[in-house]
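Hi R.,

Here's the chain you asked about this morning:
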Amino acid sequence: MKTPVLTGLDRLLRPKTIAVIGGGAWCANVIKASEAIGFSGQIWPVHPSKTEIAGKASYPDINALPSAPDATFLGVNRYASIECLSSLSKRGAGGAVCFASGFAEASAELADGADLQAQLLQAAGDMTVLGPNCYGMLNYLDGVALWPDQHGGERVETGVAIITQSSNIAINLTMQNRAVPLAYVLTAGNQAQTDLASLGMALLRDPRVTCLGLHIEGINNINNLENLANLSHELGKPICAIKIGASDQAQLATVSHTASLAGSHTGAQALLTRLGFAQPQNLAAFLELLKIWHVNGPLPSGRIASASCSGGEASLMADSAQSVGLQFPALSHTQSTALNAALGPKVALANPLDYHTYIWPDPNKMSATFAALFEADIAMGIVVLDFPRSDRCALGDWDFALEAILSTKKMSKVPIAVLSSLPDTMPEMIAKRLISKGIVPLHGMDHALQAIALAQRLKPHHQTILHPITPINAQTLNEYEAKHALHAYGLEIPRGNAVDTADEALRCAAHLQAPFVLKGMGLAHKSEAGAVRVGLSDGHALQGAMQNIKSDGYLVEEMVKNGIVEILLAVTLDPAHGYVLTLGAGGTQTELLQDTVSLILPVTEGDTANALGTLRIAPVLDGYRGAQAIDRPALWRAIQAVQNYVIAHHGQVQEVEINPLICTANSAVAADALIVQGEAP
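And the predicted structure, written out as tokens:
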């Protein structure tokens, strides 16, 4: 059998030899961290004048090393980093961590930052580079620590992988005491050469890695992310991602931090959903989700059962679960019978269950209770259990509960979790014991339930994303031009024409059916400017209305009648994430309700139907309280027309907006339209 050829990234992640270049405290820390984690290979310090660093003999330069190192930590300034990378590349080194900052992330302050980053890449050639502006990597599976600071992890045999663009967040995640087994923790920094997706694919291919968590400041390569999503699905290893940038302040911090294009937060969310990545909103839920996946893999649904010995806890579970979309299915007759036998007549049976303390501490009855409750079509059975402080209290009685839970696990067909209502009341030693038995320890009710709600397997979309291309010399088409451009792709528009004079308007009206709509063209906000008149009954009313609208041109149309609901239908080019389709409440309700949902193009009819179902106005679409429903196929034809137009003009379109699209029982008509487009670069 041939020995597989290792890539530079393989050598960097799992090295046999490590070079540490630089003589400062950061470099000494790397050497100490490597020794402390149990690195079994060779470590070679490099410094032109020091003969020894952190107790190890030093080499004067890279060319003096015994061989080309698999992994190198560059703990020197940005100029020296470029020189060292060039030497390492010529020697055939595997890969390097570039610790220095002052590259593209600092271009606003340092005029040469972006240019130096380009020089860095040129110097590296084909050699793998992590960073610049990053701490490096921790491999807890094989005992590798290219890491210049403290960390809180420990060696594991299997675990979750985490990649972040923030070194400080990476440090903090290693300090967690939630018993999440960390296999790898990597920092990507500026992603100048090796991006999050490339790192993620390498980690997922390690059979010892169970799932992947990403902290994303900016997305460099959508195609690589699609490949990562497909690999995740192929291997059955789920991915979750926290994408920062929801606030203006966060986007500013991102640019100064890693030089990544943050893009719109809406676009990022739509893209990650499209790729099948779960999206926790905070680091606590992020860790809880990874823990669930590590122990059980993805959950099949959001149906759960919960047992606690407190009515207050049961109520908190019910309220908190409802807020994240989890369901507590009602008890079956079989469950109720078995629970009644275990608990007696004094306990009111329900899900979530308050089993009181009558059976505490009787492990046999507790186990019978949990087994009966979890004998159902659920994704997870949960025991709510908070442990006392071990420094001030006795834990003896809680051993009975643990015994009952472990006994239940042996006979249960569904995953089981032990949930502490507070993060503080699940000791790490107990959490580790539970994981070793295949039970998920969950820290904190709110974050745990958020994680359970996200733990279902999401599939990446089967269609390739329409990648963003920003046009040049973009201009806005007037309403008449925009409507007819989209009409050519199947969009239904009102009958009408563009006119310049009152006489032309009168002649136009003679071929239309009243009532009429008159609009002044060339105005960004026609309604606010008083440039829209509706319900004009005849040609004379039309001519009179024209006298009160000052405009370079006018649009005369038949008025759309019998509208049921007005929809916003828009596509916006997000330079970082693709073409974002937005659907929602339209007309005057767009700003009032702010009821929208966004998807990444291209979409299918099923995609849009599911998205529309999440809107607050969804009941109106299907006929609220006996009212007529809209023509759903007509709405899809309108969406499809806009999508087809954007695809046909890929690289030219910057924005398309129809607001409102008036939906009736038998049509979906564009009452207004806007297109911003230019030339492909």
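The chain has four domains: 8-279, 302-454, 495-558, 565-679.

Let me know if you need anything else.
M.
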